[in-house]
């Protein structure tokens, strides 16, 4: 990676195969800053975290709701392009709230456009948890088809600001689609 490309991480002009938009407004931070080893050590995948300034999670790209947790603190999405799985987890230890302060109007199988609301949460009400940092993770099960991941930084607006740009290994994708049982 050249120094110049590194310098542009907050305003990259790189045109990627798939661009993930901010699912919540706030400040983009490294995933390593999340105070939970499952995220900071990238056990379930790589990504970024956002310190939210609003209480609405929106679709970060054209995608399908694969799973919405019954406590509505987290959601798994499948991107329409390339079928990658994204995991968005509002705050840390928010599962302990047992759904208090969270609402959602989406269901598993719903097709969403970028910016469509997924989860609404009481930003002040969930501040009693360990952290409000919200990880956005690209599942490690996608590693075989991902060529590069560019993580951006800075302030972001939900449904508008790119936070992650992904280049896909088209040959690996083709092979994965041809493998029986996938």
Gap from first CA to last CA: 33 Å
- Biggest sheet: strands, sense, closure? 8 strands, antiparallel
Number of strands: 14
The order of strands across the largest sheet is 9-5-6-7-11-3-2-13
Notes on the structure:
Helix content is about 10%, strand content about 40%. The chain has 3 helices and 14 strands. Strand 6 and strand 7 (about 85-90) form a beta hairpin.
Keywords:
182 residues, mainly beta, eight-stranded antiparallel beta sheet, three-stranded antiparallel beta sheet, 3 helices, disordered N terminus
Brief description of this entry?
The protein is mainly beta and 182 residues long. The protein is built from three helices and 14 strands.
List the helices and strands and how they pair.
Blueprint: H1 3-7, E1 18-21, E2 26-30, H2 37-40, E3 45-52, E4 56-58, E5 63-68, E6 74-79, E7 85-89, E8 102-104, E9 111-112, E10 117-121, E11 134-139, E12 146-151, E13 154-156, E14 162-168, H3 170-178
